[in-house]
Write a sequence for this structure.
């Protein structure tokens, strides 16, 4: 092979190498898909509840705090009162008796929240139950409907479980009523959706 032939063959090979090098550099620089984010922990929240039989005292409870960060400090924002509370493994705390008033709960280097009291606290507690019952109803309704559909019972009617889950301060009667309605509606919708899905596949 003469020198001219070698140069003729070498030139396309060199061009291919340069093209591949540029492409490889582009591939290497392409952004990678970020891993899915972990579910966010519940937001810190706290509530001030008047002590039964003594309007001068209150109990503060909360959730969404980190046990690893130590005690929760309670700072009365409309007076000189205060206190501390121990956080459980579930991120919740309940204080001892503190002077009645408005409070902020916080951890050093951790979560903080302005504590709700009175009707504002009651509304938040009611809404928490309504949301939890709606989620419970949807989950239970779909599970029950799927089981019946897979067993061949496609004309089943939903059987509602009305045992409500109470956590922390107790919702009032209106809150309980709305939570029951939310549960029943979510259960029935999910039950029907499961039958439709698994009886027509």
């Amino acid at each position: 092979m003469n020198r001219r032939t070698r140069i003729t063959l070498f030139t396309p090979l060199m061009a291919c190498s340069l093209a591949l090098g540029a492409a490889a550099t582009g591939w290497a620089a392409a952004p990678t898909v970020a891993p899915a984010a972990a579910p966010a922990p519940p937001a810190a929240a706290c509530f001030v509840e008047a002590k039964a039989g003594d309007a001068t005292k209150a109990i503060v409870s909360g959730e969404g705090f980190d046990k690893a960060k130590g005690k929760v400090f309670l700072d009365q924002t409309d007076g000189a009162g205060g206190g501390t509370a121990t956080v459980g493994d579930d991120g919740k705390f309940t204080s001892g008796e503190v002077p009645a008033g408005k409070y902020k709960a916080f951890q050093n280097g951790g979560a903080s929240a302005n504590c709700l009291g009175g009707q504002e606290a009651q509304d938040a507690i009611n809404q928490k139950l309504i949301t939890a019952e709606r989620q419970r109803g949807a989950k239970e309704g779909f599970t029950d409907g799927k089981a019946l559909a897979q067993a061949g019972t496609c004309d089943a009617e939903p059987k509602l479980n009305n045992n409500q889950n109470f956590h922390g301060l107790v919702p009032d009667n209106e809150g309980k009523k709305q939570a029951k309605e939310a549960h029943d509606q979510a259960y029935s919708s999910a039950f029907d959706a499961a039958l439709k899905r698994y009886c027509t596949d």
